[in-house]
Amino acid sequence: MSNNQFKRGELYSFITGKASTAIARRLQKKINARGINLTIEQWSVLYHLWKKEGLSQQELCNATFRDKPSITRLVDNLERLNLVKRVASDNDRRINLIYLTKQGQKLEEQTMMMAEETLNEALKGVPVEQIDVCKQVLQVVYDNLKS
């Protein structure tokens, strides 16, 4: 028996993708308006480094759901902007660990405030209980498909 409550042709990815794109676009506008030279993709890498520095490029791939060439390009660009630096791992010189520079650390407070504003705008009028249910449902969908 199907548990799909969507009309024919509607897909979760379409619905969640539209919302995700709208949020990303709004956050990018805020970043641009403040004169910060940073893309949403670069911001997402910095976000994970703000949570935990010294991640390998593979760990960043896993955290951001991007492939190795994309992460390499993003880290290259962040390095050019002097926001991150690569440091060879003590255990395995083939692995680069990514650390924030002082300039990269400074962006956290400013851009996280913009991200919080953006989410508040996106969720305006949505009851907390519905947000909780949505998060739970999307987590189950993800868990069902993550293998």
Task: Explain the overall architecture.
The protein has one domain (12-145): Arc Repressor Mutant, subunit A (Orthogonal Bundle). It has helices at residues 12-33, 40-51, 57-64, 68-80, 102-122, 128-145; strands spanning 55-56, 84-88, 96-100. The mean pLDDT is 91. The chain is built from six helices and three strands. The chain is mainly alpha-helical and 147 residues long.
* Residue share in helix: 55-70%
Mean pLDDT: 91
CATH architectural label? Orthogonal Bundle
CATH class division: Mainly Alpha
Query: Which term fits the overall shape?
Result: globular
- Helix- and strand-based class? mainly alpha
Number of domains: 1
Low-confidence region ranges:
none
Largest sheet: 3 strands, antiparallel
> What kind of assembly state do the chains in view correspond to?
single chain
